[in-house]
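quick q for whoever's on today - can somebody do inverse folding on this one?? i tried earlier but teh output was garbage lol. C-alpha cells:
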C-alpha cells in the first residue's frame, strides 16, 4: 500500500511537472516573440523614464527658482539686522520686498516677524498673524517644522488678493545665533505654473501632473481629467501606496480598457511627486491580444496549481495575514487593520448608543533618544511603551502603532472622562518607568490627546480632533493630557 501511494504521488508529481513545463514553455514562447518586438519598439520610441528625467531637469530650472530666492531672503543680512533692530522704519523692509518681487518677477514677497507677528508685504503691512485665525495656520505649521526642514511649499489664496491662487515658498528665518525670528518667502501664480506644466505636456506628448505625499493632486494642466487624489482614481487607487512610498516607480494600470503607463519621481525640494502618464501604443494592444490567448492556455494549468497549492497554503496564509495586520517591531496593530476595528467599533456604538473614545499618544523628543543613544535604544523605548500600554488597557482595547513614535488607542464603551483617566494613568506610568540598557538609564515622557465619538462623526474627523488635542498637549509643554471637546 505504501509503495502504491508513493508511486501514485511520484506519478502525479511527474504529470504536474510536465504539464507546467509544457504550458509555460508554450505560453512563454508566444509571449516572448510578440513582447520582444513590441517592447523593443516601445523602448526605442517612447522611453517614459527618460521623459520623466528630462521634465525633472526642466523643473529644476523653472520651479526651484523661488526656493532659491526664498533661501536668499532668509539669509539676507539686511532682513535679519532690521528684525533684530526692533523692526524700525517698516518702509525699508517693504521697499526691500518690493524690489525682490520686481527683480525676480514673483507675484508676491513677504516677511512675518515672530516678535510682532506683523505680516509685511511688498504693498505694506497687511495684518497681524493670529493663532486663532485658520488662514494663519500655515505660519504656525512652518514655525513647528523639524529642525532639518527649513521651508514648506503650499498653495493658498494670495493674502493681498483673495481672487488669486499662489504657490507659496515659506522659508524659516533665524538670527545670527540660530534663534527663530520669522518666516519669509515668495509666491508664484498657479496659472503661471500651470503654463509650465502645459508646456511640458506639449513638448513631450505626455500627461504631466504633481501630487503631494498624501496623494492629493497639487498642480496639473488645463486638460487634466483625473480625480483630485490618487486614492480616488480608478486603477491608480491600487498603486497609490507604492507610488507614495517610493522615490521613483514605473507602473501601469488599465483605464477605459487601455493600458496606461506611469512614471513617478519624488521632487525632494517640493516634497511632491512628478507623475508622467502615457497611454498604450498599438504594439501594446497586440501584446494584450496575445495575453488573452495565453490566459486560455494557462487556465487548465492554474486549476491544477490551485488544487495542489490549496492543500499547503492555509498555514502560510494565516501567517501572512498576521504579518499584514501587525507592526513588526511591537506586535501592535498596524494602521490598516486598525481602521477595520475602528469602523466596526463606531458602527456598534451608533447601534447600541454606547461611547467610544480614542487616545493619540506621542513619545516626547523621541528624535533625541535616537540621536543620543542610537536607533537600537530607540526601538527598545518604543517596545517598552507598547508593553506599558497593553498592561494598562483591557483585553479588548486596541493598541495601534500609528506612526514612528505615535500610538492610537481604541477604547470601546469608554466615555471621555474615563478615557482621560486612562490616558493620565498611562502618562504617569511611562514617566515613572526607568529603562536600563547596559550603562544607560533613561526615561521618557509622552503627550496624549483624548477624544470621544460624536454622533454622525466620520472616523477621519474624530482622528483629526484627537490629533489637534495631541498638538495642543505638545504646544503646552509636553508630558500632559489634553481632551478634545
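ok took a stab at it. sequence:
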Amino acid at each position: 500500500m505504501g509503495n502504491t501511494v508513493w508511486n501514485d504521488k511520484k506519478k502525479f508529481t511527474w504529470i504536474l511537472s510536465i504539464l507546467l513545463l509544457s504550458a509555460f514553455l508554450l505560453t512563454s514562447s508566444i509571449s516572448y516573440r510578440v513582447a520582444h518586438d513590441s517592447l523593443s519598439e516601445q523602448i526605442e520610441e517612447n522611453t517614459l523614464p527618460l521623459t520623466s528625467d528630462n521634465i525633472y531637469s526642466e523643473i529644476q530650472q523653472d520651479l526651484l527658482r523661488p526656493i532659491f530666492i526664498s533661501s536668499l531672503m532668509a539669509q539676507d543680512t539686511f532682513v535679519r539686522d532690521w528684525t533684530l533692530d526692533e523692526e524700525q522704519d517698516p518702509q525699508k523692509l517693504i521697499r526691500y520686498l518690493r524690489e525682490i518681487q520686481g527683480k525676480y518677477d514673483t507675484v508676491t514677497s513677504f516677511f512675518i516677524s515672530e516678535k510682532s507677528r506683523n505680516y509685511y508685504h511688498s504693498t505694506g503691512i497687511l495684518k497681524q498673524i493670529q493663532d486663532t485665525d485658520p488662514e494663519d495656520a500655515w505660519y504656525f505649521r512652518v514655525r513647528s517644522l523639524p529642525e532639518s526642514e527649513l521651508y514648506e511649499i503650499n498653495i493658498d489664496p494670495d493674502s493681498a488678493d483673495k481672487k488669486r491662487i499662489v504657490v507659496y515658498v515659506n522659508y524659516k528665518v533665524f538670527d545670527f545665533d540660530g534663534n527663530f525670528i520669522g518666516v519669509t518667502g515668495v509666491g508664484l501664480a498657479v496659472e503661471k505654473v500651470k503654463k509650465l506644466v502645459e508646456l511640458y505636456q506639449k513638448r513631450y506628448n505626455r500627461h504631466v501632473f504633481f501630487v503631494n505625499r498624501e496623494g492629493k493632486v497639487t498642480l496639473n494642466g488645463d486638460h487634466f481629467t483625473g480625480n483630485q487624489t490618487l486614492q480616488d482614481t480608478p486603477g491608480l487607487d491600487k498603486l497609490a501606496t507604492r507610488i507614495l512610498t517610493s522615490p521613483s516607480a514605473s507602473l501601469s494600470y488599465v483605464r477605459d480598457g487601455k493600458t496606461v503607463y506611469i512614471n513617478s519621481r519624488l521632487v525632494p525640494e517640493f516634497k511632491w511627486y512628478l507623475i508622467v502618464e502615457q497611454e498604450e501604443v498599438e504594439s501594446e494592444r497586440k501584446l494584450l491580444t496575445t495575453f488573452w490567448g495565453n490566459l486560455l492556455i494557462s487556465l487548465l494549468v492554474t486549476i491544477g496549481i490551485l488544487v495542489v497549492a490549496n492543500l499547503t497554503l492555509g498555514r502560510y496564509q494565516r501567517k501572512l495575514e498576521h504579518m499584514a495586520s501587525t507592526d513588526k517591531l511591537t506586535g501592535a496593530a498596524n494602521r490598516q487593520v486598525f481602521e477595520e476595528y475602528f469602523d466596526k467599533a463606531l458602527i456598534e456604538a451608533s447601534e447600541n448608543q454606547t461611547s467610544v473614545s480614542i487616545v493619540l499618544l506621542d513619545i516626547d523628543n523621541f528624535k533625541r533618544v535616537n540621536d543620543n543613544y542610537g536607533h537600537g535604544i530607540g526601538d527598545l523605548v518604543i517596545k517598552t511603551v507598547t508593553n506599558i500600554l497593553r498592561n494598562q488597557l483591557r483585553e479588548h482595547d486596541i493598541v495601534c502603532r500609528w506612526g514612528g513614535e505615535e500610538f492610537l488607542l481604541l477604547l470601546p464603551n469608554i466615555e471621555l472622562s474615563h478615557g482621560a483617566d486612562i490616558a493620565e494613568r498611562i502618562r504617569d506610568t511611562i514617566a515613572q518607568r526607568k529603562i536600563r540598557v547596559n550603562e544607560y538609564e533613561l526615561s521618557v515622557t509622552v503627550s496624549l490627546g483624548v477624544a470621544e465619538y460624536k454622533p454622525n462623526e466620520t472616523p477621519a474627523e474624530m482622528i483629526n480632533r484627537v490629533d489637534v488635542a495631541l498638538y495642543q498637549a505638545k504646544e503646552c509643554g509636553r508630558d500632559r493630557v489634553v481632551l478634545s471637546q
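fwiw DSSP finds 14 helices and 18 strands in the chain. also The chain has a mean pLDDT of 82. so keep that in mind when u check it
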